[in-house]
Amino acid sequence: MAKNGEGEILEWLGAQQGAMLSLLEELVNIDGGSYDKAGVDAVGARIRAFLESHEIACETIANETYGDALRATVGGPSNAAIMLMGHRDTVFPKGEPTRRPFRIDGDRAYGPGVADMKSGLVMNCFVLAAIKQFGGAPAPVMALFTGDEEIGSPFSRPVIEAHARAARVCFNSEPGRARGAAVTGRKGCVFIRFEITGKAAHSGVNFEMGISAINELAHKTLALHALSDPPNGVTLNVGVVSGGQTVNTIAPWAKGEVDLRFITPAQRDATLAKVEAIMAKSYVPGTSAKLEITGEFVPMVETAEGKALYEHYAAGLKALGVTETTSLFTGGCADSGFASAAGTPTICAVGPVGGRAHSPDEYLEIETLVPRAQALALAVLRLP
Ligand SMILES: [Zn+2]
Question: Is 204 buried (19+), middle (13-18) or exposed (0-12) by CB count in 10 A?
Fold first, then answer.
């Protein structure tokens, strides 16, 4: 049975595809890589203007280095909030929207961050606007718009954790998966940078006097990759390396970056200890190494509460005529890990459906903007 506000909200959202697309076009065309505070804040300013035009107040949680966090809350009796979440930063270098602006080709929209996750932000904005206008939510609906997810949320992590702890449930609007799928579990990851010091020497005249940091890096890379245990969800990838001075010099330095992925916090601790042991060991005598953790996401561990929240969300999708629904586990990391680790039932990837994130082929399935917004609205409205 339709609750107060529900019919009006579905109908209003049903008429918003054009308005959603034009806000999306504006957001995609604002440059905003994670380290571009001014750009990420400009995306925030546009979101704030939209919300304020719908009489929704926005609060800023300011930061000097990374994009500010924005918080907007609408309606509902004053108990624990229903939390919506999304990030405004993209992975792309400065100037990307100028080179590759928003465009529509057939059923798909393209442009940097079009799926990951500016369409999710647009969806959250319109769901807030609908609830502001028609009411019906069983609790306040609070949306956070953060600005540093793609680099591990160095500023926003504690903001997300504090808000999640106070919330009853959390929906993160990362790009949705095909059909009715959303994400109930994610791996955690640790980004590690390591630097090796050797000793320079002329490779022709004083070969024996040199200590090759590159040789050491090669040993360490093999050892790191050997720690991977894909059947159990643990992987290590040395994704970036550099080193050396010239071709005729024994390399005095080398460095690399490792992405460690895992399913459980215990796997993280055990594997990180092994990584530290590899760094402490000198395969080439005379080298030394140090490591630094440059970013980290905690896993979104699958829980009964998270699964139940997905079933609740999927029931709304089914009411909208989406017959196939599934919950997924993914190796990708996101802010939803911080929310779920705070003990709050959380589901992720409830945003409009898209793919090929972080690539020039990134796309959004345009016709999923409205139904995904309606599904999220239903999930919010029908919480007990
Ligand atoms: Zn994302």
Answer: exposed
The predicted-structure confidence for 80-124, as pLDDT tens digits, reads as follows 999 999 999 999 999 999 999 999 999 999 999 999 999 999 999
- Report how far ligand 1's centroid is from the alpha carbon of 205 (Å): 52
Strand 69-74 and strand 108-110: the pairing is unpaired
Structure tokens at 54: 């719908």
Closest CA to 10 of 366, 373, 351, 323: 373
- CA dist 90 and 112 (Å) reads 7
Ligand 1 centroid to Cα of residue 116, in Å, is: 4
CA distance 95 to 39: 11
- Distance (angstroms) between ligand 1 centre and the Cα of 129 equals 22
pLDDT in tens, 256-305: 999 999 999 999 999 999 999 999 999 999 999 999 999 899 999 999 99
- Tell me how far apart the alpha carbons of residues 341 and 287 are, in angstroms, rounded to a whole number: 39
Q: Which residues of 74-92 are buried (b: 16+ CB within 10 A; e: fewer)?
A: bbbeeeebbbbbbbbbbbb
User: Tell me, what amino acid is at 358?
Assistant: H
Distance 277 CA to ligand 1 centre (A): 33
Q: Let me know: does 319 contact 307? Beta carbons within 8 Å.
A: no
Residue 18, classed as helix, strand or coil, is helix
174 Cα–ligand 1 center, Å: 5
Q: Could you tell me the two tokens for 343? A: 């003990």
Residue in 331, 243, 295 with CA at minimum distance from that of residue 35: 295
Please tell me the distance between residue 2's alpha carbon and the centre of ligand 1 in angstroms: 33
Interval between CA 149 and ligand 1 midpoint (Å): 7
Cα angle, residue 61 at apex, residues 56 and 67 outer, rounded to 5°? 105
Rounded Cα distance between 195 and 179, Å, is 44
Query: In sequence order, what E strands does the chain have?
Result: 58-61, 69-74, 81-87, 103-105, 108-110, 141-146, 167-172, 182-186, 188-197, 235-243, 253-262, 288-297, 327-330, 346-347, 354-355, 363-365
